[in-house]
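Entry
Fold in token form

___
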Amino acid sequence: DPIPLLGTLSNLLLFKNKFGAEAYRKLDVIGIDEAQFFGDLYDFCCEAADLDGKTVVVAGLDCDYLRRSFGSMLSVVPLADTVTRLTAQCEECGKCALFTLRKTGEMQTELIGGCDVYMPVCRGHYTNERGATKATVEVLIVIQNELVFETAAATV
């Protein structure tokens, strides 16, 4: 029987304690969604699979909007029996979308949003759009620096 979600855990290694040792022992499969956000993902997967004999299914983003590895996702690949990389279709041309394009100027790695903030794109559209996005961000930084400079000059 499927077991209901436990809610949000900030640390996967707390799972066994929160769930209960006896209930945990009865589990065959553990699913982890949004795995890129768990700093202890590697340690948990090693413990659950290697020591406890669980099947661990991990889902999450392997890279951020800048195509840098995201969280611990890629660190668990060597532990995996199989790896399946799922992709969307490019919103511009319908080709395989390997990347996520952020449509806003926010720069932080973690930004919650849907299709208003992100869109799946192929390599060609990622590199074309990133060039435009990078230029826009550089202009915003220049404008921001000039405003800071002007504000500082005005207060002197």
Observations:
- The first strand starts at residue 29 and ends at 32.
- The helical segments are 15-19, 21-26, 41-51, 123-155.
